Amino acid sequence: MGHRSGAKAVDRVTEKCARLGIKALTLYAFSAENWKRPKEEVDALMDLLRQNLKKNIERLRKNNIRFNVIGRISSLSDPLKREIKDTIERTRDNTGMVLTLALNYGGRQEILDAVKAVCQNTHEESLDVSSWEDADFGKYLYTGDLPDPDLIIRTSGEMRLSNFLLWQAAYAEFYFTDTLWPDFGAAEMEKALKEYERRERRFGE
To answer: What is the reported pTM?
Structure first.
């Protein structure tokens, strides 16, 4: 029931952000560490994800939202992978907000996979990385076609990143709330954004 309530929170926050004109929203749906949970819980969560993708496809299209996924997708079940592929294909031409779900995702594994890809390309294409800047490496991350986050919201009173967007979060602003994710909605989103508006971003300066 907690996961089902959490799925409803996804719908609320997604629609709110789309209405506000936010360009990209990334939600941490399932971490690489979550496989350690009981099998029954993991199976139920995966099935819930698949059902919600099927149920919400028309809502995504209606709201002009493009769907995206980051993480090691190959480890997911075949039915879920098919639903993900179908949702991506059917929203590909939408021009509004990009909704990204992080599935089987971990920030460290993302950086490691990027390094492996760079090494592979260096070997196969004689790639010269000696003059690379941050942005050159960033293209190899799962989020290579997305902007770095301006704001990261952490719910449930937790005060840690939990392996989320470690590279991309370098200059993001953080907002912490005791509100549990299943209870998070449009009003909480507005509070977070108003707090963000009061911040003076320095980007390390």
So the answer is: 0.92
